[in-house]
Design goal:
This protein has one domain. Helix content is 78%, strand content 0%. The chain contains 13 helices and no strands. The longest helix is centred in the N-terminal third of the chain and has 28 residues.
C-alpha cells in the first residue's frame, strides 16, 4: 500500500476515534450498555432479517441497472459481489472501497468499461439517496410540532423540499448520469423498498430500546445520520452517526416539544452498526467465490 492512502486511512481512524470519544464522554457508558442489552433477541433477529432482505433487493437493483445498460449478470453472483462490497467498505477501508471493487471485478470478468461501471454505481447511489430523502420528509409529517412553531409553515417547507429533491434527482440522473427518465423512475420500485426495509430495521431496534412512541423522531435522525455517514471522513461513517444523534436529539426535542433521548439515539446507532458489521462478514465467505466465478 502506498504511503498516501495509508496516511488517509490513519486519519480516518483518528477522526472516528475522536468523534466517538466526544460522544462517550457525554454519556453514561454503563447505562448505554444496559439499554442495548435490554433489546429482546426476537427484535434483534427481526432487524437482522430486515437488513439482509434489503441487501437482496440491492443486488437485484444493481442487476436491473446493468441489464438496462445491456449487461447481463446473474442474481447470485451479484448478491455475492454486493456482500463483498459491504465487507470492503467496512473492514478494508481506503481508496479501494466496495463500489470500486465491484467495478474492478465486473471489468475483469465481463470486460465492462470502467466509466460505465462508475456511472451505474453513481446512479444506484442517487436513487438510494433520493429514496432516503423522501422517507425523511415523510417522517416529519408524523412528528408532533412544538406550539412555538407554525405547523402550516412546516408542511409548506417539507412539500417544497420534496419538490426540490425530486427535480434535483431527475435532472441529475438524466443530464449528468445519462439515464433515461423511465429508468430513473422505474428503479424506485427497488430503492424505496430497500430504504423502507433499512428503516424497518432501525424501527425494530428503536422499539426494542423502548422508544417506539418517538419512532418518527428517531427515524428522522437515523436518516440524517445515514446520509452524513456516506461522506468518506471516517471508517464507514463511524462516529459521525453517533454525533448526529448526540446533538440532533436536543434540536429535535425543541422542534417537537418532546423528549428525544440522545443516549437512546446513540444506542440505536451502535445496534444498527452491529447488525451491519455482522451482515458484512458474509462478504468474507463470498470473497474467493466471487474471484473464481465465471459468467
Amino acid at each position: 500500500m502506498k504511503k498516501f492512502p495509508r496516511f488517509i486511512i490513519i486519519i480516518k481512524y483518528l477522526i472516528a476515534a475522536l468523534l466517538l470519544w466526544g460522544v462517550f464522554s457525554c454519556l453514561d457508558g454503563a447505562e448505554l450498555y444496559k439499554n442495548i442489552r435490554s433489546i429482546p433477541v426476537s427484535l434483534l433477529i427481526s432487524a437482522l432479517l430486515a437488513f439482509n432482505l434489503a441487501q437482496f433487493l440491492c443486488a437485484e437493483r444493481m442487476r436491473y441497472y446493468y441489464a438496462r445498460a445491456g449487461r447481463q449478470i446473474s442474481w447470485w453472483f451479484n448478491l455475492m459481489l454486493y456482500y463483498v462490497g459491504m465487507f470492503f467498505n467496512i473492514f478494508i477501508p481506503g481508496g479501494f472501497g466496495g463500489d470500486a471493487y465491484k467495478i474492478h471485478i465486473l471489468k475483469k470478468k465481463g470486460e465492462f468499461p470502467v466509466r460505465e461501471g462508475i456511472r451505474l454505481q453513481l446512479s444506484i447511489r442517487a436513487s438510494g439517496l433520493y429514496s432516503l430523502l423522501l422517507f425523511m420528509a415523510l417522517s416529519v409529517f408524523f412528528m408532533p410540532v412544538s406550539a412555538d412553531i407554525n405547523q402550516n409553515l412546516v408542511i409548506s417547507g417539507v412539500s417544497g423540499f420534496v419538490l426540490l429533491v425530486s427535480v434535483g434527482y431527475f435532472f441529475s440522473v438524466r443530464w449528468i448520469l445519462k439515464e433515461s427518465f423511465a429508468t430513473a423512475f422505474s428503479v424506485l420500485r427497488f430503492s424505496l423498498p430497500i430504504q423502507g426495509l433499512s428503516l424497518l430495521c432501525a424501527a425494530l431496534l428503536t422499539i426494542g430500546l423502548g422508544q417506539g412512541y418517538y419512532l418518527p423522531e428517531y427515524l428522522f435522525l437515523f436518516i440524517i445520520a445515514a446520509i452524513l455517514g456516506m461522506f468518506p471522513v471516517t471508517i464507514g461513517g463511524l462516529g459521525i452517526r453517533e454525533m448526529v444523534f448526540l446533538y440532533g436529539a436536543n434540536y429535535l426535542s425543541w422542534f417537537t416539544g418532546t423528549n428525544v433521548s440522545a443516549e437512546m439515539g446513540v444506542a440505536l446507532s451502535l445496534c444498527n452498526l452491529a447488525v451491519t458489521l455482522g451482515s458484512s462478514l458474509l462478504g468474507l465467505l463470498f470473497w474467493e467465490r466471487v474471484k473464481q466465478y465465471k459468467f
